[in-house]
Amino acid sequence: MHRRLGRTLFSLLVIAAIGLAQPAVAHAAADEGTAPPSIESSEYFTDKSAPMGTQGSFRFGPGVADVVSYLYNFDDGLDTTLQAGPDGTATLPWTPPREGYFKLTVRSVTGGGVVSDPAVRAFSILSRSPVVTIYPSENDGVGRPVLVEFLSELPGVTGFVYRYDGGRWKSVDEGYYSLVNIIASRAGTTKLVVRAKLPHGRLSPATTLGIYTTDSPLVELEGPYGSTAIAGVPMTVRVDPAVKHVKEYRYWGLNSGEEQTVRAGRDGRLRLPWTPAEPGYHLINFRSVTSGDRVSASREIALTVQPAVPTVLSTWNNTTPRGGVGVPGTIRFWSTIPAEHVKGFRWHVDDGPEQFTARNPVGYDTRTPYTPTHAGSNKVYVQMEFSDGRLSPVQEYSFLVA
Q1: Beta-carbon neighbour count of residue 210 at 10 Å?
Q2: Cα separation of 311 and 309, whole Å?
Q3: What is the spatial distance between Cα 377 and Cα 400, in angstroms, rounded to a whole number?
Q4: What radius of gyration, in Å, describes the C-alpha atoms of the chain?
Q5: Fewest C-beta in 10 Å: which of 17, 134, 373, 402?
Q6: Domain check: are 234 and 293 in the same one?
Q7: Total domains, the chain
């Protein structure tokens, strides 16, 4: 009969209807000591985790007197009894059944049935084969790199060898951790095999996993400012097939929410001119169709079309006169177009001389000082000058000076 003292368990005898004695569990409180046992292991409690297949043991030591057995479990909460020796200790031989994280919980039991508080130790078992992690992105596809991580904490690892989709073995010699780019040449599931390089020319067991590559077409936007889309600025949408024998593409989102169909070139490619009409968020969707009428998965591209003109702010506004003639203030030009595509802003107030303010290379806000020359209504006229010398449409901004 086991008794738990402190937060203690008493085992009672319950007489069943057929006259047999059956143990039952109840909870009670008492004041006896219930110090937890100790747990030691020279194989599993070390600075480095033990590898899979390591044969070792755990030694349980008493925290109270008169210990006759131990209750232990690994993660699952199902206790197993291990008898103690005359000195109250016990040794549990153990070989890990799997790799990964373990939590060992142990309680001692005295001759009087007192069950101690639990002792808990956590530890990890290393895989003998490398841990391989794939980091997919929304732009994955045929011909595009996928980032893959190799990790092995086995002693003495100097690098990895790997083979992708039945190709030749490749090697990286960067120690126990490496990042590599894998590029698929076809859609579907392909196989990656990875082994760790161990001392004396040995290799670890292999990790084999599949990498799935979508059959959706590859879509990229090209314009005078790279992939930056600006309202009113012509671009080209480049669409390349991920499968063979593509005859057409179905798409929506280029200035229309309705699906449209366009023939592909003889090589399965498409070059589609597009001039974004309005600034704001756009979602573009493309699917390919083969000569056998197989429709691919969708390729979605989310992008923001930038306004072609800046937003103008200032010390003044157009509702309440502020400041005064000769009182300095600030005019601000705000644009989210990347700084490398904008030289600056050409502007003037009313009929005043044109001035140029270079774009702030950091952030979206470019500020320039201005001192009003007359009271009443004032108007700023501004154009962005792009990196290629192109000028944006004129943006106007009115304000009142006291």
Answers
A1: 10
A2: 7
A3: 5
A4: 36
A5: 17
A6: yes
A7: 4
Distance in angstroms (rounded) separating the CA atoms of residues 12 and 22? 8
Instruction: Give me the phi and psi of 167, to 5 degrees please.
Output: -80, -170
3-state secondary structure of 339: helix
Query: Do 119 and 145 fall within a single domain?
Result: no
Secondary-structure breakdown of the chain: helix, strand, coil percentages, each rounded to the nearest 5: 0, 55, 45
Beta bridge partners of 14: 22
Based on the domain organization, do 163 and 194 belong to the same domain?
yes
Q: Which CATH number characterizes residue 275's domain?
A: 2.60.40.10
Give the DSSP letter string of 267-321.
TS-EEEEE---S-EEEEEEEEEEETT-PBPPPEEEEEEEBPSS-EEEES--SSS-
Note down the domain range covering 315: 311-401
- Model pTM? 0.69
SS3 letters across 37-106: CEEECCCCCCCCCEECCCCEEEEEECCCCCEEEEEEEECCCCCEEEECCCCCCEEEEECCCCCEEEEEEE
Lowest mean pLDDT among 139-143, 147-151, 159-163, 165-169: 139-143
Question: For tokens 């153990």, what's the residue?
Answer: 94
Residue 106, both tokens: 């142990």
Q: Is 201 helix (H, G, I), strand (E, B) or coil?
A: helix
Q: How many Å apart are CA 125 and CA 41, to the nearest integer?
A: 13
Q: Note the residue count of the chain.
A: 402
Residues 153 and 92 placed together within one structural domain of the fold: no
Cβ atoms 106, 82 nearer than 8 A: no
Domain end residue (candidates: 279, 305, 331): 305
Domain final residue, candidates 185, 213, 241: 213
User: What is the C-alpha to C-alpha distance for residues 228 and 337, in angstroms, rounded to an integer?
Assistant: 8
List, for residues 261-306, the tens digit of each pLDDT value: 999 999 999 999 999 999 999 999 999 999 999 999 999 999 999 9
328: which DSSP letter? -
Residue whose tokens read 């072609």: 308
∠ CA 244-275-215, nearest 5°, is: 20
